[in-house]
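Hi team,

Below is the intake form for TonB-dependent receptor from Duganella guangzhouensis. Please confirm the fields before the structure is written into the shared record.

FORM ID: S-0412
PROTEIN: TonB-dependent receptor
ORGANISM: Duganella guangzhouensis
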Amino acid sequence: MTFRISRPAALTSLALAMAACYAHAETADTVVVTATRSAQPLANVISDTITINAEQIAESGAGSIIDLLQRQRGIEIARNGGAGTSSSVYIRGANSNQNIVLVDGVRIGSSTTGAANWSAIPLTAIDHIEIVYGPLSSLYGADAIGGVIQIFTKKGKGAPAVTAFVGYGSDNTREADATLSGATGGEHSFSYSISAGKEKSDGFSATRPGLSSYNADDDGYDKENAAGQFSLQIAPGYEAGAMFVHSELKSQYDNGSSSYDVRNKALLETAAVYGKAKFVANVDTLLQYSESKDNGENWSSAAASGYSRINTKQKDITLQNDIRVGEDIVQVLYDHRKEEVSTNGSSALNRDRSTNSWAASYNARRGANLLNASIRRDNSVYGAKNTGSLGYGYDITAQLRATASYGTSFRAPTYNELYYPSYGNANNKPEQGKNAEIGLRWDDGVNALSANYYHNRLTDLLVNTTPCPFGTTAYPYGCAYNVSKATLEGLTLGGATKLAGVNLSASIDLQDPKDDTSGKRLARRSKKHGNLTADYHIRQFKLGSELELSGDRYDDTANKNRLGGYGLVNLFATYTINHDWSALVRWNNVLNKQYDLARYYATPGSNVFVGIRYGYK
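The structure came back. Fields below:
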């Protein structure tokens, strides 16, 4: 069957028919931050947004954040092997560097590649995750074309508590973590949470025969992490705090017939201090200073010449004012971000750039009507970029809402695309996006349905162009140049119900991520993918199963190397021993399906993970 996205009305009807078995984790009192940069009930958010809460993460048995994201609607992944290897996340078909990743409000990622190092993000430190689909450049600036993923670490509350987890699984995978958290009461309350964790696995061979670097040995990883959050209530309306995340990943990958595997060391760090104040009764002010590091070291041989290093640092100062006008919120924001790159290789990359941004937004509810509008201006070495968005929602009934929105976005050229010798061009411009979407949501507290249709038109895409317009002598293998156009078009279907005591959840994405210049499908993206989950509670047990589905993809831009579609079956169970103790077991890829996320790179076969947890959060 060939799917063509040409009749949105018919597809929306199909969405409502198919969404009757989609379970949602959100509740009416769920509060989200990312969609508007301030805490809002999910019921007041126009943007297509989902949350992954602490219970879901605890029961997932996921080996990495990539495994967890792969099971979410609107998201596809590519990975060059196991949990410690290079990974990409595509939101609604957008490239990995066309999405923003935040950790407690701090932007992470490499300025040379433009993408976050997903393998270095510690799953054990995460409390919950928010995913907002669609362009958010008018709120967050460059790179928010496909969406924003914000990761929130654990925060202290209530009486002092200790939680701990240990687990063991296939490939000699070991995991352990512990958290101490709590909060004092009174007028000058103090909350704290500090956690530490370690993961280690022997792994499996990251490559398959056919790749020049193939070696049949196992490629494992070792990851250590620590995180903390601290806040002090100085007086009513006044708060000061600090937070940090530190994660170090050591991994290896094949180096052909050489007995020396390539070694990688990745360091991810974030740190922030902030102050919140209510100088005026109806104004909430936030001032935050943050830093993030994305450092990478590589040893391709035992010789000194085999060592390379690329370090990225981002410094950010944010001043945000949320002004309440009646029930409405007007937000005014200033942001200064400085990026620094240091390498032991090309001196052309050893430089810094600053971006100064001003933004304003307006959020209102009038009876059954919701309105959101935002504008932003970013100034940097690549010039000035203006972006904006406008969203409207209407509650047709208490259960049914229709939404419509339009937004512009852009992606800043990376250091590689601007300065890398014989590849970059300092005159390269930002990529630009224009997105329009409509949606329907039904939620009666028991059943939930959703359908979102989007059309995101991208221009000035930066691709490797051969021959390079700057001359074949200096650029013999092509260069980065603004020559392509693309359309990211699709429909995401979802809903929720409970049948005979079984919670059912399902989603399906029907999409057409296409390079308009060549007419080819974008690499490593399918035309359809989906998930189905069922779980059942019986006494102290929770039993569940998952089905992950994906259509075929192409590993290359020319669409010559086809990656077949696949279906994966996973089983999981949790057992509540008593108030403090619980156990879980997860069996992934039960049918031992061989599938490809990247050509000639291996994926996990049938694997089992078991663990025991003390404390709930």
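SUMMARY LINE: The chain is about 5% helix and 55% strand.

Thanks, M.
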